[in-house]
């Protein structure tokens, strides 16, 4: 052990040092004054100290304070020839471990040393334990923060991936409200847009459990109160349903109890486009910092997606416009077939509606049906406008137009269904058509529909080398080819609508 003795009685100091050295202690140092002891304790470490209560230059109690502030676990044994109760209590209060009253025997010193050694051991173990507990707590805190960070990153990634995978605005708004509800504790989320030049908000999507029958579709914008309020905030704004209902009649009394709403503005190039509305139970909206961050991120991603989609739709619209112009130019050269594509699109739309096709399929026919013969751009005019039946070689060339057409639109990113109209509109139900010889249900439905419309318009149009067939005769001709050239269902639907 390393022992420090502070004793102004030189003889006693020496005696104690010799005694402790005989007990094989590692180091025994004696200081005769408080000043010297103060210097020593600053630069060296000890396992125990014996301090005389009365020193020539300082009070032993002051020295006790100095020792304890340097090492709170250092056991200090106070020594005094005239101990008073007051001094003893004060020394114990300041952390003294033991008291030796002069004159004492060396045996007393050995016993005191043994006691304080045990005490120091316990104190150090206790300290180590406390440090370990503290370190464990800090580690748990760091782990928790790390877990939250990872969780946040996972959720941000989830938002990013979900929004990036969206290809149309029809999918976008339901995804925004679904993500908002899923990633936060919102009971319900809705997305509204402010249509230009209109005073009403439009509800685009809604997700979650209704809060007390609150119907968001009933919002009105009589004086643009809500728009102005949302527009004033960079991030979200919390609105009380009570305020909206009583002050501005925006909720039309549809919320039985008060709820608070958080509105998250979505801006496109700085202009307010719409907002996400979150419904919170009760009057105080409670969103954690992480939820706020996630919703902010979601809105920013959605804003970029809306902008990109608008750009893409505008580009695609322009491209379709160019292709339609090409089709028009192609048909303008042929005095006999003029507006063939327009009529085919019209007939195909009638058939599809009759057959109960979806709105998306009807839209596809409307845009891509018009382009079904665009591949004829790749066939020489002398063949296309030949005022006589085609030779075998010429017919083989004409048969390439579906494949040429598909290659023209391939770079547009059209879906398989959209491209199939162009590629397969000359396939036959019995498999004898071109370019792939598909049969029956192998032929995509929209291509089968266009095939019927195309054939009817071709038969009822005048050609340079033949007259136009009457509608009734053309229908009879179509019927003869039911389940041979044409899909029976598509043909029946067409006959029903044309005969009406
Ligand atoms: Fe064709």
What does the model show?
With 500 residues, the protein is of the alpha/beta class. The chain has three domains: 2-127, Response regulator (Rossmann fold, 3-Layer(aba) Sandwich), CATH 3.40.50.2300; 169-311, 2-Layer Sandwich (Beta-Lactamase), CATH 3.30.450; 333-499, Hypothetical protein af1432, CATH 1.10.3210. Helices cover 54% and strands 12% of the residues. It has 18 helices and ten strands. The protein has helices at residues 10-22, 34-43, 60-70, 85-93, 106-164, 169-183, 225-231, 241-248, 289-332, 340-354, 359-368, 381-384, 392-398, 401-409, 416-424, 445-460, 471-480, 488-499; strands at 2-6, 27-31, 48-52, 76-80, 98-101, 188-193, 202-208, 237-240, 259-268, 271-281. The strands form two sheets. It has a five-stranded parallel β-sheet, sandwiched between helices. Helix 4 (85-93) links the parallel strand 4 and strand 5 (98-101). Helix 6 runs antiparallel to helix 9 (289-332), helix 10 (340-354) runs antiparallel to helix 11 and helix 16 packs across helix 17. The model is unreliable at 211-218 and 246-256 (pLDDT under 50). The structure holds fe (ii) ion (FE2).
Provide the CATH top-level class of the largest domain.
Mainly Alpha
Question: Count the helices. How many?
Answer: 18
Cofactors, ions and other ligands in the entry: fe (ii) ion
The number of distinct β-strands equals: 10
Fourth CATH level, the homologous superfamily of the largest domain: Hypothetical protein af1432
The biggest sheet amounts to: 5 strands, parallel
